[in-house]
Specification:
Helix content: 25-40%
Radius of gyration: 17 Å
Order of helices and strands: EHEHEEEEHEHEHEEEHEHHH
Strand order of the largest sheet: 5-6-2-7-1-8-9-12
Distance between the termini: 22 Å
Bound molecules: adenosine-5'-diphosphate
Number of helices: 9
Length: about 260
């Protein structure tokens, strides 16, 4: 059993009802894309949502949210940047891009502590925290020290990615962090011309692994040009057309996630 001193407790963020980590076994599976889309989708349901980018190795969320400015400091506090109904902060605002990777790990807890305590988060229903990819020391420390409501694990359907999921789930279980569910990203491709579905990276692995590991399966996200373009352009798909099939996927996932959180003991 891994135990850790809970340096940050609920007293520190009294206005935040739920802190949800978004994790993945490895990079490039779409963890940031899913974090951004879930945040915007939850905000669309009327919830008050914050998004905290702690991916020290590649803080891409400001780009995906179309943010170029730096946060303002008012008094002693950093003011989150509000975009598409979501309050955002990124560790990228605090760690210079040219900081060598090897220094970033040790800096992370200090920076995350600041991102939680020195930021004017206000009252939020959900604070989504995009973790760095993988299940190493950085993620372990974060999961130990931040009072998480639970964690969502993003994976692609390949077996290799799924092995990492097993590792991730076992780490969070050891830390007593509830697993809110697994999301399978880039799950299938639907041809925009003929509508035929292709399982590019095979399919169903996330759901099968969830069953085997006895964790909820929240749903699947197709590999889709509009999702990628929305990320690159800083305009998540939900922003322009909340009725598109892509947007509905994320609205559905947000509903599943909210329901799962409400059912926690
Ligand atoms: P991670 O945070 O896991 O490293 P990203 O969210 O940065 O992954 O995604 C990696 C790349 O894959 C980005 O270019 C992103 O736009 C793209 N991508 C992620 N999910 C999808 C998807 N469902 N369909 C198309 N492209 C996607």
């Amino acid at each position: 059993m891994v135990t850790g001193e809970q340096v940050l407790n609920k007293e520190i963020l009294p206005g935040v009802k739920n802190i949800i980590a978004i994790a993945s076994g490895k990079g490039g599976v779409g963890k940031s894309t899913v974090s951004v889309s879930l945040a915007v989708a939850l905000a669309r349901t009327g919830a008050r949502v914050g998004l905290l980018d702690t991916d020290i190795y590649g803080p891409s969320i400001p780009i995906m949210m179309g943010i170029t400015e730096k946060p303002e400091i008012r008094g002693e506090k950093l003011i989150p940047i509000v975009k598409y109904g979501v309050s955002l902060m990124s560790i990228g605002f605090m760690i210079a891009e040219d900081t060598p990777l090897i220094w970033r790990g040790p800096m992370v807890m200090k920076a995350v502590e600041q991102l939680l305590t020195d930021v004017e988060w206000g009252n939020l229903d959900y604070l989504l925290m995009d973790l760095p990819p993988g299940t190493g020391d950085v993620q372990l420390t974060l999961a130990q020290k931040v009072p998480l409501t639970g964690v969502v694990i993003v994976t692609t359907p390949q077996d290799v990615a799924l092995l990492d999921v097993v590792r991730g789930i076992s780490m969070f279980r050891k830390l007593d962090v509830p697993i809110l569910g697994v999301i399978e990203n880039m799950s299938f491709f639907r041809c925009p011309h003929c509508g035929e579905r292709s399982d590019i990276f095979s399919h169903g692995g996330g759901e099968a692994a969830s069953k085997k590991l006895d964790v909820p399966f929240l749903g699947e996200v197709p590999i889709d040009l509009k999702i990628r373009e929305g990320g690159d352009a800083g305009r998540p798909v939900l922003v322009d057309d909340s009725e598109s099939p892509q947007s509905k996927v994320f609205m559905n996932l947000a509903e599943q996630l909210a329901a799962r959180i409400s059912s926690l003991p």
